[in-house]
Amino acid sequence: MVKLKMTGVNTAVSKTQIEKEIQNMIMSGESPVALTTMATTDNKTSSLIKHASYDPLLRVMLVEFETNVYLYNGVPRQVWEEFVKADSLGKFFNKNIKPNFKGVKINEENTV
Prior knowledge:
Elements: H1 15-27, E1 39-40, E2 51-55, E3 60-64, E4 69-73, H2 77-85, H3 89-97, E5 103-106
Antiparallel strand pairs: 1-2, 2-3, 3-4, 4-5
């Protein structure tokens, strides 16, 4: 599971700043640490999605697939809540998240 070190980050930061922070941490070999505000899909199963996390303050959603992890910025809390309630996480993701929010690929091999 990929976790982000976002503590102390101003919630008004831009998407570019968040992406740069994440990439810098990964490239430097630093182990990202999750925010305590993150909600997860630990109690749900999906053939497409291995794990997903969401921070309502930053409106950041991490989606872990079998081989890759993507960060989606600007995801409203309501979309996350509908996602975790969906009968199929994969179908909801493909219909409501993937086409509406740009995903930034995070190379999980570089995280600890």
